[in-house]
Predict the 3D structure of the following.
Amino acid sequence: MLWIHPVLQLLCTLLGLYVLGLGVQRLRASHLKHKVLFNWKRHVLWGKVVLVVWFVAFVWGAGMVRFLWGSSDLTGTHFVVGLVMLPLLVTGYATGHVLDAVKKRRTVLPLVHALNNVLLLGLALTQIWTGIGVIKLFLIP
């Protein structure tokens, strides 16, 4: 049961890289004035999936650690970085929702959304590194 968390998070982080690639097209079109196709619907769909799965898998991982070993913070840095990610997940989802629901020309909110989510992706990549340590320590005897 504990393997659900790392597998979901790894796959979701790879999907996050894809969503970032889609978002770069938006940046190129809006701020660099390049003529490129930005697949808005795909970016929104997969972006929501990434943010929601990251959140659910965080809850799952912390919950399983607490259930099985009595404390969610046994994984140290891995747990702390996950906690740091939580408000960024909410911010990424909220800004993305506003951008999708109220479509109009903007410059600041898309940049806030992008910077927030690039930071999230960087933290998720850090989680892969710290997660490998957790797997070695707790899951592989």
